[in-house]
């Protein structure tokens, strides 16, 4: 319980760090001198989500981070302006990669929802930094 207050305050920074790391690991290729051990995965390789099918864990991680950003922007009354800026930075960082933009466009409803939330964010924020990130 003692750490709950810390994480309640620090989660936007952690989200931003997770998005930075996710983008850094997209292009990371395994080195030639290390062989990855083969791991048997008993799960099915296909997971379904109402509108779209995800075949790779990287897609699932993208949608997890994207979903956290979208949820936070939908509940803007509950977060400070500084936290909103961190969430917008996280979203911009996440969508900086062309692969991630392609993942987003696999499901057009997500892209439409993103446009609506960014429009609302641009209309409701008073911070110049948040407005520039939402543009």
Describe the model.
InterPro entries: Laa1/Sip1/HEATR5. One of its GO terms (cellular component) is membrane. It holds the Pfam family HEAT_HEATR5A. With 135 residues, the chain is mostly helical. It has a domain at 57-135. It has helices at residues 4-26, 57-74, 81-94, 98-105, 108-124, 128-134, and strands at residues 47-49, 52-54. Strands 1-2 form a two-stranded antiparallel sheet. Strand 1 (47-49) and strand 2 form a beta hairpin. Helix 1 (4-26) crosses helix 2 (57-74), helix 2 (57-74) packs antiparallel against helix 3 and helix 5 runs antiparallel to helix 6 (128-134). It is globular and about 35 Å long.
Write a short abstract of this structure.
This protein has 135 residues and is mainly alpha-helical. It has helices spanning 4-26, 57-74, 81-94, 98-105, 108-124, 128-134, and strands at residues 47-49, 52-54. The longest helix has 23 residues, at 4-26.
């Amino acid at each position: 319980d003692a750490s709950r207050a810390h994480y309640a305050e620090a989660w936007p920074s952690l989200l931003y760090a997770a998005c930075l790391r996710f983008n850094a690991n997209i292009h990371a290729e395994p080195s030639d001198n290390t062989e990855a051990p083969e791991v048997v995965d008993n799960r099915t390789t296909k997971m379904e989500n109402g509108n779209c099918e995800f075949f790779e864990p990287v897609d699932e991680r993208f949608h997890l981070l994207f979903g956290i950003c979208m949820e936070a922007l939908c509940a803007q009354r509950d977060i400070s302006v500084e936290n909103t800026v961190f969430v917008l930075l996280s979203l911009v960082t996440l969508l900086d990669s062309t692969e991630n933009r392609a993942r987003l466009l696999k499901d057009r409803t997500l892209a439409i929802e993103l446009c609506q939330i960014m429009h609302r964010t641009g209309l409701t924020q008073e911070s110049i930094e948040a407005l520039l990130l939402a543009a």
